[in-house]
Amino acid sequence: MNAVNMESINQKEERSNMDDTVSWVRTHCARMDHGGCALLVGVKDNRIVSVRGDPDGYLNRGYICPKGLASPDRLTHPDRLRYPLKRIGERGKGTWQRISWPDAITEIADRLNEIKEQYGARAVAFGQGMPKGMEHFVLIRLGNVFGTPNIIGLQDVCHAPREVTGIHTCGFYPVADFHHTSKVVVVWASNITSTNEEGEINILLSDQIKQGTELIVIDPRKIDLAKKARYWLQLRPGTDNALALSFLNVIIEEGLYDTDFVENWTHGFDALANHVKQYSPERMSEITWVDPQLVREAARLYATSHPAAIQWGNPIEHNINAFHTTRALICMMAICGNLDVPGGNIQANEPAILGLGKFAKADLLPSKRKEMIHAYHHTIPRLMTVPPVYFRKAVLEEIPYPVKGAYMQCVNPLLGYADSRQTYEALMKLEFLAVADIFMTPTAAMADIVLPAATHFEFNDIGHYGLGHGYILARPKVVDPPDECWPDIKILNELGKAMTSEEYWYEDYNQLLEEVLEPAGLTFREFAERGFLKGPDRFKKYLEKGFRTPTGKVELSLSQAEKFNLPVLPLFDGLPEAYDPDYPLVLTSSKSQYYLHSSYRWVQRLREKRPNPKAELHPDTAEKYGIQQGDEVVIETRFGMITHIAYITDIVDPRVVNASHGWWFPEEGPESLFEWERSNYNILTSTEKVGREFATPNLKAIGCRIGKK
Hints:
- It is built from 25 helices and 27 strands.
């Protein structure tokens, strides 16, 4: 533990209320979102008594969000899972018996190895939600050692469209650089004052705004940052690619691009210039709902301000056009000279740590790219996790081959995957399902074995490994977990020893962390003393070696498009879903600052802040349908129907309904799977139509209708 002098962190108030036995530990937040906030945690008698933001934090400078403040409540919650469980009744009926850890490990290993022997290793899939620490990459290691190529991830709707499209277009994942001043920041579908996505902590941007950085906000909702923006473009949900192409139209038509960069470092500019002529702001305004003059002014401001950054959020990855939107935005960054420059969108330089491939033992499964489920469906190269739609197809239809067993951690597919009823059918059909979690969720309640996981503060971990932001964060253990709650990393290490050759695993799972740090010449203890490790600041690396693309340049026009059956240029060829007069309103969704997807509705302090799923309706819309504030309303699409509580506000367009994502009701009990259908947003979504590149379904921009219940 890294003890901190109480006076140095100005803890006088706490000192007046607590005795001198309180010790202070520096760590980083995790698992409440992607993490990144440095914390000072007060501990007494193996209990956390105080949490506050560390003013010396690299990313947060003392900031802490409501989830971070409430994070200790998870550790002591009376309904927390505290020992392994085995299902004894019908699947999904909520009847269990307590078993020991050795029996649980043996049961999982035996069942998954039986499936491997009968159907082959690829008939077993390992599932992960949003990466929260090292557990994601230890899971991939387990998959590779076991012999299955199938790691199910949510990257189809989060991160992969930006990362993988970046690799194909410019050779890297372009990250907004908030550590150097930008003249303009475009906040595109990124509500970072609420969600702090992927370590892009809002305080860094807020400090820049105070110093004069100007904002362009692009969001269907009038988020808090829109109030501080020079321009707010309230676009129709699902039309980001049309709007981005309109920006390109203005920038190229008016000659606002960086001529030197375009001439020397781009491939296919003439083709792009000719292509975007058809996407004028005037022509696109009927589609995007944005005033053409506003588009022109915002495009001019971005193009003429150097450096400028685009902080893009994962909502651009929530419809079938994710590839086109991301391509168009990277083209904007490139032609305006904002790639890999301080204050622009940079190629982050990783510190001297072990590479992901070596850590995950990728060499043990050289045929992985050809064997993964989605390879059969010809998704984009470099997509390294299985999209949920194709996992379920393999379970339900055995295409391209059967999947019979699954192990899942840090994920709640019954709420998190599009088309929840399809997910239910797939989970019911599995021959064996094991789930590790800290609380009984609707998904865990369908498992054969449920394992109690340790939560943040209860084990050593490394944050942001593999996220491409150029740094890793120390998360030293703060308190001991309950006796039978194990860190996911330990669970996987023990499963690895039981299911595969022990040579790839350790007596002490902490050695997995030491492996990652060895190239840096640091032990975990030394790393924890430092707090974080980042790569060097180096910019314009393309001047030395070019871009890591086939042409050595930013590929505005993809040189290998034909080879991979990809569109050469970014397109807008229609709305994600065609307009249907029977469902005249446009449905979208947003995340809450109090929750992480479907997590933590059982944390009382957070539930009190947002007790019910709310549907944001414009006053005109509410009046039209006879709905008043607080009414229970029905939201219906072609695919299903749910209920929410009406919240009347002018931050949404009258043509839009903004629903809440991730709702279930822990108070209702596992016998009903916690009423997972009542308000679950993914009852309203479908997988009948997915993007070819990433198999991304339409999570937003869906036709809907509403009524008072």
